[in-house]
Amino acid sequence: MADTIVIFGASGDLTNRKLIPALFQLHRKGRLPGETRIVGFSRTPFTHDEWRAKLAESAVRVGEGEFDPAAWEEFARSIYYQPGDIGESEDFVKLRKFLAPLDGDHAATRIYYLSTAPRFYEPAIAQLGASKLAGQPCRKCRVVIEKPFGSDLATARRLNEALHKVFRERQVFRIDHYLGKETVANLLVLRFANTIFEPVWNRNYIDHVQITAAENSTIGRRADYYESAGVLRDMLQNHLLQLLCLTAMEAPARFEADAVRDEKVKVLRAIRPKRAQDVAADTVRGQYRRYRDEANVRPDSVTATFGVVKVEVENWRWQGVPFYLRTGKAMSCRTTQIVIQFREPPHMMFEGGPTSTHEANRLVLQIQPAEGIQLYFQTKVPDAGMQLRMTELDFNFRSKFAGGMPEAYQRLLLDVLHGDASLFSRSDEVELAWGIVDPIARAWESADMTEIALYEAGGWGPPTSTEWMRRQGREWFDMCPVLH
Ligand code: BG6
User: Which parts of 351-418 are beta strand (E)?
Assistant: First the structure.
């Protein structure tokens, strides 16, 4: 039996840089099921061979010296191209006619991958329904939809409605590529395949949690998108809230899509959307100093490129434990990490021992790029009386396991092919996430908050962020990871 992946937005950047290289790697590892075929659809009038040649070029670039031409030749035989315009219903009829003989007599799984600009999602979905490429005639069809999934709650709802007119929810795979990262999936393993962490994973032992996704890159050529998205929509509504959900959720009974997603949804429901009057006190925003000089950025832009949001999960496990979500561009280094800061010992009998929470036990989950885990604890310094010092146990994925860390898209594409939606967002999940972010975005964009703190590139955001955290009675862990 054969599977067919139809990529809309075939000539785009994501297809070249991520999707095709990931499918190629899966092919090389022998993981693609049966005869998987890839069909590109976009307006550029390529022939099959022209598109293959173009993809080969970027596969060589992405492969960074590890490109295997023989394997590519074999893989490229299953790649096809059908030119078409999402606005033209005739082109969908042509696509249907092109796909029919490819599938042959066998009931094939069809995957429609929407890798277009977001404004084309709804028209593409409607065309798939109208041309009978999806909907009732295609029970084995799936649709993959890239981020951003809407730009607020209202647009996300509308997109969900458009999807549900043509697909059942179980056929819909909403991508958040963070969920395809090995270290993110490992969060579930760490918590639920071990016994030693869960008993202390709650308000009795944890003081607070810091989730940081720092990038040293700037927005580069993405101003058209970034100016309207800003840091909240670009990183916080999706990636950071997903990391929070996996850190805070209860154990699902099974590792199955709905069991996992039900638990994540419970976390999101336990977060009360902020009232407008609380936003200023519970958030920090900033913009890197040269942002307004970037191409296509308005000279008076107040788009935030850095943001901190304090989130409270109001349930028995987490009452009183703040989760600080922090993310920004043009920061000191690229690092995504989750710091679980434990409480201080109730009584310190060692003179000169730790006196603040900052020196209490800490578990650091390094999501990327130094994938690993560190557990910090106090140790007696040898031959120095009862002097104590913070030391750590350091686990590193790359030194423990051979073979490197695969790109998130490999895992996600394979899961779509297998019909496993555990690592994809459900409709209620994205809507709840927007419900949390919307009031903050509204307040930030309101006339009352036009002042934005500027920060120098190469640091940890604006000084207001450090001061704000001090006022919380805490300190940021500004740590660039050590790459092994
Ligand atoms: C994307 C954002 O979703 O994630 C980008 O749009 C960001 O702005 C990127 O750079 C970060 O992804 P990663 O995998 O490099 O952490």
Answer: 362-368, 372-380, 388-396
Task: Delimit the domains of the chain by residue range.
Answer: 3-146, 179-471
Residue whose Cα lies nearest atom 15 of ligand 1: it is 215
- Exposed/middle/buried for 266, CB within 10 Å: 0-12, 13-18, 19+? middle
Ligand 1 contact, 234 CB (< 6 A): yes
**Residue with CA at minimum distance from ligand 1 atom 2:** 234
Closest atom, ligand 1, to C-alpha of 238 = 3
Reported as a single tens digit per residue, the pLDDT across 231-251 is 999 999 999 999 999 999 999
Encode pLDDT of 88-141 as tens digits.
Answer: 999 999 999 999 988 776 667 999 999 999 999 999 999 999 999 998 778 889
Ligand 1 binding pocket mutation candidate from 182, 183, 215 (most atoms within 8 A of CB)? 215
Which of the following CATH numbers is that of domain 179-471: 3.40.50.720, 3.40.50.280, 3.90.1570.10, 3.30.360.10?
Answer: 3.30.360.10
Burial (0-12, 13-18, 19+ Cβ within 10 Å), 251: exposed
Average pLDDT, the chain: 95
**pTM listed for this prediction:** 0.96
Please give the full DSSP string across 195-214, using - where no structure is assigned.
Answer: SSSGGGSSTTTEEEEEEEEE
Superfamily classification of domain 3-146: NAD(P)-binding Rossmann-like Domain (3.40.50.720)
Q: Kindly report, residue by residue over 169-198, the tens digit of the pLDDT.
A: 999 999 999 999 999 999 999 999 999 999
3-state secondary structure of 131: coil
- Nearest protein CA to atom 14 of ligand 1, as residue: 178
**Is the per-residue pLDDT at 447 higher than 80?**
no
Cβ density class 277-286: b for 16+ within 10 Å, e for less: eebeebbbbb
The per-residue pLDDT for 106 is: 64
Residue 284 dihedral angles phi and psi, to the nearest 5° = -135, 140
Query: For a pLDDT cut of 70, what percent of the chain falls above it?
Result: 99
Q: In testing the pocket of ligand 1, which one of 176, 177, 410 has its CB within 8 Å of the most ligand atoms? A: 177
Q: Is 27 a catalytic residue?
A: no
Residue 33 pLDDT: 85
As beta bridge partners, residue 396 has: 372
Residue nearest to atom 8 of ligand 1 (CA): 234
Strand partners, 4: 37, 110
DSSP 177: G
Q: Which of 27, 164, 239, 418 is catalytic?
A: 239
Q: Identify which of 184, 235, 305, 409 to mutate to test ligand 1's pocket (most ligand atoms within 8 A of the CB).
A: 235
Same CATH topology for 3-146 and 179-471: the answer is: no
Q: How far apart are CA 254 and CA 246, in angstroms?
A: 15
